Write the structure tokens for this entry.
Amino acid sequence: MRLKILALIILLFSISFSQTNDYVKVAVLDISAKIEIKDIDRNFLTERLQIELLKYRGLKVVERLELKRIMDEQKIQLSGLSEKDAIKIGGISGANKIIIGSLTEVEDSYFLIIKVIDTSTSEIDFIDQVSGENTIELSKQINIVASKIAKALLKLPIEKPAKINEEKNTEKEEKSYSSSEISEKFWMPLAISFVKPFQLPGEDYNIYGGAISLVSGKYNKVFGLHTGIININENIYGAHIGIINTTYQSSFGIKIGIVNNAYGIAFGPQIGVVNKADTITGIQLGIVNIAEKMMGIQVGVVNINRSGAIPYMFGINIGF
């Protein structure tokens, strides 16, 4: 009997961790400058880049506070930061890619160079440069850079440059949307799925009400209840009840199942056999509880809080 229980736990672990390949985890370091540039708000530009990247489903961004904690622990300063140090920070944070930006002033213009480096191979996957005369002009360019980064990392098709239409009265211009923009435009009160992608409506929709997964179903955001065997969402605002419950960005509410995954922030309780969250604000109640960062309580046989003073604890583990 004990062997069967152990085999079941191992199987659940394998199912839980196998879903981590559905996204690319990136860490965005604060934009640096070799000399003090008072006219440009670098913190604002860094936050803007993070916000734009989060709009793309399939990308997950490491929290800035977590990066700051790592830099403090490793005694690494942003000024004079080398690419080797950046890769080290990205690796410790668990990111697949590290994004660094450097700002330079040339006469009356400012140039921002952004690089994306693979933390495992140290290869540069993407590099681009934008320019502007002030923070607002650079901020407008960040949107374009984030789109290019997302397409490069997620292997999305590259759009061809738009052709100039010589007719002034043309209003029917083709417009491309990121997957997040599409999902914000469409919503349904009820959803049902047999197995992804055989579901109604499609996974780009937001559900305001309830979603039922006969086998598995995936939707962008669910405001309400998502129940079934395998339930997958980018964000859930309400309740996840099933065998395997997974969110890739944010979970606000309760998760009840055998395996509960929150690849992002989980606000509320996770109740199951195996509970896993990048950041948990609330309680994890189960046999095995795993958190990269915890601001709450773990109650279980094995409790893991990787960022805590005591990473492994049996019984009850409290972290803030």
Observations:
- The CA atoms of residues 12 and 259 lie 7 Å apart.
